[in-house]
Amino acid sequence: MFLIKCPYCGERDQSEFNCGGEAHIVRPKNPPDLTDDQWADYLFMRKNIKGIQFERWNHSNGCRRWFNVTRNTATDEILKIYNMGEQPPIVTGIAPKTPSGETSIGSGNISTSYTKK
Amino acid sequence: MHKKPKKYSIFSLIKNAFSYHENWQPVWRSPEPKNNYDAIIIGGGGHGLTTAYYLAKNHGLTNIAVIEKGWIGGGNTGRNTTIIRSNYLWDQSAALYEHALKLWEGMSQELNYNVMFSQRGVMNVAHTLHDVRELKRRWHANRLNDIDCEWLNTKEVKEFCPIINISPNIRYPVMGATLQRRGGTARHDAVAWGYARGADAMGVDIIQNCEVTSLNVNNGQVIGIETTRGSIKSKKIGVVAAGHSSVIANMVGIRLPLESRPLQALVSEPVKPVIDTVVMSNTIHAYVSQSDKGELVIGAGTDGYTSYTQRGGFNIVEDTITAVVELFPLFSRMKMLRHWGGIVDICPDASPIISKTHINGLYFNCGWGTGGFKATPGSGWVFAHTIANDEPHKLNVPFTINRFSSGELVDEHGAAAVAH
User: Fold this and answer.
1) Domain of A31?
2) ipTM of the prediction greater than 0.90, yes or no
3) CA-CA-CA-CA dihedral for B90, B91, B94, B95, to nearest 10
4) In chain A, which residues touch B (CB < 8 A)?
5) Model confidence, pTM
6) How far is A3 from chain B (nearest CA, A)?
């Protein structure tokens, strides 16, 4: 539940958009030479990061144009929006202190912020 | 050594009543982690606890630990809509889920813990001609696999569930349904607690508030874990971390085909018994049953993006409620009490991964996506077998991670009775 600032239409509700998944997965240049494992890696395997992730979004119920989003999946905070074809930007966001832990603010989860008194 | 847990019975209830129920022993211990275990299970949800339970019970491995970053059953085990069924299309899935359903049928007796398993029937409703064809196909597939399933026409649907709206004038009219009478619901927390108690009784250490921060691997063999409560050695590690499976996999460079997404559910204010079955509709994403407390338990669809925040978009809830109100107009003035999200690990073919990895001693049980609760006992059963023997059980042979290379996918999208 968040707002996305479409580079073409401005800020709109997330429900107007479709997420195209992880960005910067390069289509194989030599498809006939790929092994089954390489195909599997290209087609199916994903980083699925908890923290800062680069992903593709489409304003499907608006201008229907694609763009890239840098989003913190631990908080849903959008850090940077950039055009297709551009290199991923260097950004910093609030990261969880431990790999599966929660950020100090913004995660909405309490399951690991519990401390025994 | 800890004391064996006392058996729960009418006599123990009466006996404890005399001391105002203040002297019940804890259901499981809270031990400090040891330095070394024969096996470690990462993740203390239903699947992790059943894995530990069956490792101890079926394979005699009792020097094992379940490591949980929060509290047991606090993740998706405590967040699902508790629907249990085995009416899957493909033989591989049907065998796995039916094995689980058979374990559900004896669970309360086996654990001496009431999981309130209620075989009230699960009805999958068809709203379009395509739905009718798909569901009839699945009905026949179920019968070929010896899984109980019936086809109900619209009139029979109304007889079985009188409050449903069968008007032909609604946007998605009821055109029939499949019914699995052996399906139903269970008390999800009790499943975690019951298996925790059973595993603990056999000597399994359940360690809560302990998060895994890295996996130690030496020469292609897993040798232990680092946690927020120190390092623990073990040559067998089973990862059952649901939405966080990729986080653990990324620690050792294993690539998984998962996307972790929020899946939302909500419950209404409690009312008198009004619906005595489970109604599922995959076309319009509405899943409704009524808990023993009287709350309507309503499940929604997943949000379409990666997130670990255990909350989703309001539009998803709105879509679900719209559909539910059209199917059950009498719910239109009910108030919703609570609403939450869980992080589900969605696999591209909507089937789980219960598999060895290229690292010796490291096993993954993940990818259950939106439908893992029903498989809880079966998942633990086959995963325990996989860990103990370093070989998959015959039921989880098809569910390796290698199927994404070989192409032998078990495509349960849509056919799983739930649109993903």
Assistant:
1) 3-113
2) yes
3) -160
4) 1, 13-15, 18-19, 21, 36-37, 39-41, 43-50, 53, 55, 73-76, 98-101, 106-109, 111-112, 114, 116
5) 0.95
6) 10
